[in-house]
Amino acid sequence: MDDGARPLWRQRDFGTFWFAQTLSVLGDSFAMIALPLLVLQATGSLARMGLLTAVGGAASVLAAVFAGAVVDRVDRRRLLIGCDLVRMVLYGLVPLVWACGPRGWLLYVVLPVCEAVGMLFAVAYVTVVRGLVDRDRLTEANGRLNATAAAAGVLGPLGAGLVAAWTGPAVAVGVDAASFGVSAACLCFVRIRARAVDGAERPGRAGLWRDLRTGVSFLRHHPVLRTLTVLLFVFSFLTLGLTDLVIYHVKHDLGHPDGTVGTVMAVGALGTIAGSLLVARVRRRFGFGPTWTGSVAVCGLAFAGLGRTHAVAVVAVLSAAFLACVGMAGTCSMSLRQEVTPEPLLGRVTSAFWTLQYSAAPVGAAVLTWAAERHGTALVAAVAGGCCVLIAAVAPATPIRGA
User: Fold this and answer.
1) Hey, what domains does the chain have and what are their CATH numbers?
2) Which of 365, 371, 383 lies closest to 36 in space, CA to CA?
3) Residues 320-329: pLDDT tens digits?
């Protein structure tokens, strides 16, 4: 049987990449819970948690400026392996150092570098799928990857919460490091087809800034992508700190242990699975504009209610609703970008899009958590959620409506 006609799970290269990518997401989801818990353990401060998120987000944004040009220049498989190895080593340092006592400063060193490397991995991942499967199977491949990534997003927070409860959050970071090591080993056996690149679209040698401008120019001249970039800029500013807010609300406001935090986040991640499974069907029925707009509106309503509930079960359900709709809106956005962007430009356009989208998000995370610590999670969540609903209200008056 021709390899391209086989089920995806029986195609060796894609199957191995699929497994490696799932492990990388699992590691990221462990870090998402374990690192804020370490900060809270060392300082007891929500503002310090938000500052760590902001520093990591800023490093990710800075890396996004150059990620697309780097991905379009180097061997993508080696880049993915290198990214996993760097994260394995850096995250592996945390439990070793923590064994001698809490060292909060280390997290502000490790996380920014790991976030920057993670951005390189993410941009490379978007382009690699096209080198693993035929063009007519891209949608199927992306769906499989998103579904298992969402499942890892469920197991990661749950596992991180349980490990943190039993042995401490530092050990959970060590598990995170191990997952990246296994992922790197798997990627060593993946073969990626070379892309045919038009000379006019090949990255030049004039500099990375010119390549970034190439991606920005494409976004600026596409009316829907231009509008999405602006609206997602505001949305990311408002929502990047949501995980810290939920963790603080469950532990500080409601008085529950680390294990409950992991359970809440795992239940929330179930929403991501639901969103990944539903988005294709919903978009086919209602179109891009209504699907994206409705998803953002539900995100805002769920966010607004998070800080006002005192029941852990309701917090988990609202987190699931938020993450489901974030997943639907994000998948719609990424799919549209893949559909309309020429393949040789995809890395640079993805890099430019993420740079612009998240450029203010670290500041937003710091502001959100600082305000919540002083004025309460209920008020801050209500204001941020209301602003997200306003974004959804504005979208139908833009080119998104007819996308």
Assistant:
1) 7-194+207-402 (1.20.1250.20)
2) 365
3) 999 889 888 8
